[in-house]
Amino acid sequence: MTRCAPLAVCALLANAAPGAAQEPAPVRMESFALENGLRVVLAPGHASQTIAVDVAYAVGSRDEQPGRTGFAHLFEHMMFQGSAHVAKGDHFGLVGRNGGQTNGFTTEDRTEYFSVLPSNRLALGLWLEADRMRSLAVTDENFRNQRQAVQEELRMRVQNQPYVDGVAAAAYGSVDSAACYPYSHRTGGSMEDLDRAETAEAQAFFRQYYVPNNATLVVTGDFDPAEARRLVHAWFSDIPRGPAPPPAQACTPRFNTGGPLRHVHDPRAPLPLVLHAYPVPAYAERDFPPIALLASVLGQGSSSRLNRSLVRGSRSAAGTIAMIGGASSGATGRMSPRRGPQVLLVGAVANQGVSPDSVHAQLRAEMERIAREGVTDEELRKARSTHRAEAITGRQHPLFMAEDIQIATLFLGSPQAVNTDLARFQAVTADDVRRAAAQYLRAENALAQVISSQPAP
Amino acid sequence: MKRLPFAAALLLAAPASLAAQAYPTTPPPPGPVRPLEFPAFRQETLPNGMQLVLIERHDAPVVSVSLALPGGASADPTGKEGLAQLTAQLLGKGAGARTAEQIAAASEGVGGTVSASADADYLAVQADFLAADAPLAFALVADLATRPTLPADELEIIRGSTLSLLQLQGSQPAFLAQKHLAARLYGDHPYARTPSPESVRGITRDDVAAFAAARLRPRGALLVVAGGLTWTRARELAEGAFGGWTGAPAPLPAAAAPAPRTGGPHIVLVHRPGSVQSNILAGNLAAGPADDARAAATVAVHVLGGGASGRLFTLLREQKGWTYGSYASLSRPLGTGTFQANAEVRTEVTDSAVAEMLAQLRRLRDERIGDEELGRAKDALVGGFPLGIITARQVAAQVLTGRMLGLPDEELRTRRTALAAVDPAAAQAAARAYVRPDEAVIVVVGDAPRVYEGLRRIAPVQVVDADGRPMSADDLAPKQPGARLDAAALVPFSDSSAVLLGGNAAGWSRTSLERTADGFRFVEETQIGGAIQQRTEVLLAADGTPRSATQRGSVQGQEARIDLAYAAGRVTGTAVTPGTEGPKTAAVDAPVPAEVVDENLLSAALRTLPLAPGSQHTLSVFSSSANAVQTRTFRVTAAERVTVPAGSFDVLRVESAGGPAPVTYYVTADAPRRLVKLDALGGQLQVVLAR
Question: Which value does ipTM take for this structure?
């Protein structure tokens, strides 16, 4: 046996040994549809004494019409305003009093509601979802009150925070709104549109999209599938099927890219943030996994390219990012996939005394290099390992498991795809990355922007 | 067999589930609670004195390896606060044969993570990997703990980011409240101390090396492993990685238990000028972690302030609408702990909220909690326990924390039963032991002049600035804080300056003061890039009192306009300021003291003050953006020499506080005084005298 000298190399060799790679255990599940069209997935696992109940409605900001932005998210709030047997605000109270956690989140493509509960509270979790699916109280008073709450949320999370507004400007502004309205406006919507929202529209929205035939119910964790099946049939099957939701709005991928560095003024930004936004393919497309791994090589961890080059090397940046940008999951914090075109955001926060132009040039150089040369085998192995480890580690938690199943269902067409999705990423080769990088990461494709408290020069 | 009556037969024949299938109109009750099987663990003390604990779980192929070493931030020597934290962060930046980059490459290469941190009472090195990479996880944790190289250049990187973080935290009211509460409650105990920029700047690599040598020793250390490993394998890996590590840590500095203060609640008002909210944090010292009444106290405190069903939330938010949230909790360090209750409320209701919070603390002691309310709190706590032990890492953390706090392992297994067994009498007894309003310190971080009088009616108030320096009532009384502008010292001038952003030339500014027929005219013109253009004019009477202030300009294409008139003890007018959603127009109408100085005149007013090294001055400044009179303080902190484009000057460094952001002015030491340089935004914005 040859000795291997540097420890780091030994460790890498040891881990590259055949058979060392681990795959997550296949997710065992049963999946069925009720007569009213509700899709149900039951995936028990008994590692902890907890369960997750997760309902996704296939509606998001991409279904909003011009002048009506922010509506999907506003409606998410309405879902906590009470139903026939649950008083206003009591949804949170009931789950909290039973030792659980609950919330909802809205992305471009879906609106998802989740509870994690101790496993003997399965019935409560299912009943709360059934009650609001069958009898949500969309009253005028609730609606006005939540419109205000949503506007406060926008002020707190967007307007009062550094960078958030500017990052959204890059993530959504890079999509041409005439060609692809669904992905060119923000999930949070605009204050003006929210001001115009009417109660009657919310009621119509509920009838149109919050129907069993537009929803998927996923239950994970420590439960008895027979019991869950019985409760689901008892409490969900008499909810009437609704008319089929309208087809998704058209989206021709066309982008507002190229051009000189754009300036976005943000008085709260302590240091300038330089961002490059590149259009990239939808989650289900063949070229997405190589791009996702490439983003990991660029920006994930302190051994990533951008961190090594801009933070530790030239010390120009306080921090760097590379992410497929848009809305994120409120359950797991991960970025949410899209059915339509996505956007890769790479960026760096300029250190004090470093000009944004210099950071812009360094970012561009790194992007040109990766588009020209692709990634090394070692970098690719790191990205694949990280992707796999995240999936395995995440799925210990019933909520992450439920979300993975929802993503497989909505974005890949079937819940069972949760067992094959990982392989799409593990199969990526350096050639795949090189080809995808050359195609999508051309400098002329990028929209470049600096977010800064300083005025444009 | 005898025939049954028809109805009875029907009943028996009906499937048992029929009743359950009727749609419930009330929340379904919980199913039976299964005994909680806290994952079993096995342990052994290794020959070097280090204890190994394994929680074997094969449900997911992951492993979490955590090493804890007694002695954390509370072992920081006085004046070196932050030493434990910097040391911990530096461990991952070079260890064994690996550099910082190699450590990152090795762990991230297989999708793992390794890091170190400092708690108040212990240091921890933590690794999370896939189970197949367990040898690497052990090797990295061992490298960080036993063979750190502590590179000097990496220390500087960490110091820089720590200083930035401190700066950010200093602007956050919740952080300030916590810092002041700890300082007051713990007195001379190490838990009272927090890092400051000075202490962080003073930490040398030798300090770090000495701290690491004293603390990173196996005797008394705890290695907790959770995940897909057998005992044999875990033991073999631990021996291999840590076998050659020997020695005992230096004894921890002894600290006398902090003494509770008595004599009724006492308010510390931390002045945060212009704050639109008051951050209220009330607390008192409470028992240590191993107290018998812990479970009962946890239930009682949950009734008071556990989440959205707690009394504080229900009352202060749902009924009064004063706050976004209000909660109560118990802290649990190794030594004496605390009880705390908090709320962030609108400035106007600060005193009402403090009074209500105190009333609720007393009620918890004086009244027995009703069965239903107590039951709900217990349900939440007992039910929620499994949510804290889902992942291998969570399980490891529970075991590690319990051990480091000196709790028996039984506590983890019996916690749910202990909580479920709490009855109203035990909860009340625990509330009386843990919630002690007569020993409480109530920290209020807010705009002191606006809340002082109201708070004084509740309890004695001590006013301090953000750094804890006492402020007198005079500092706050808006009628008499400021020096009157010395008209005799108003000397005409005309200065040109360059504006630098991030060190780069970005624009210019011209200021001048001239005599008029009946007073003075101050003019400032500024241009920064193409984006900011502004002209400001302030007219003064011959005695220096302001008459008017006008401003015209544009910021990023948005209009900026101020028109103020000062007369008869009031200022009136309008202010249009740029914002993200377009210009905002505000009507100005406020009472002002006779000595008021318009905010726009500050750079000129500063020259009239009797500045001397060490001197401190205050001005009553009307700010149109805050629409209020603010007390600005100016401290001369140094005499030095600076060089700017106009030349080299002997200057006094004057640090201002009380405005929207701290500004440092450099004013010539000799008369006629000139403003040579101005630093704002941590040096990002500078104005330097050109001629």
Answer: 0.84
